[in-house]
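Internal tracking record. Fields below are filled automatically when a chain is submitted to the structure queue. Please do not edit lines marked as system-generated. If the sequence contains nonstandard residues, flag them in the REMARKS field before resubmitting.
Queue: standard
Priority: normal
Entity type: single polypeptide chain
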Amino acid sequence: MANSFLKNKGGYRSLIVYKISEIIYDITYYFTRNYLKKGDRTIDQMIQAARSGKQNIAEGSKASTTSSDTEIKLTNVAKASLEELLLDYEDYLRVRNLTIWIYEHPRYTRLREFCKSKTLMTHHSELMPRLNDEEICNLCITLLNQATYMLRRLIEKQQQMFLQDGGIREQMMKARINHRNNNQ
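SYSTEM-GENERATED OUTPUT FOLLOWS
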């Protein structure tokens, strides 16, 4: 439609942060099934936080066609859900006296680089059975830190786009005025 004022948005599947959130969900599903005791409420909470992170990126992206407000809110919900999941992984390691790999840890830098690799993107499910609980938690902590960083940046970009383009009502009004001016 030549006079369409709605921009075609919603390409969340191409976002790296969405792909990472999908991997986080897969790892979390595997982790909770293999390292937490059946009946532990944490299982459902972790899976729901991972799912919420992924799903809210998708929903916010799809809603962006007609609502910048909803897009920003849902992207923030995704970030908050993943931050909640981060705490669950950190808690798991802390209460079991396992190590959270920080900057000084000998595997920290290698893990961060691996989390940026195509190998992780395509082969993460094959990797899970070869890792122990400490390794899986640190892998997910690294991915969660990367994802929440990207989501913070995405929210900043969404805010900037709103300031530049306005909301749907402003876009509709501009389109209507342009249509009137062009048809006089």
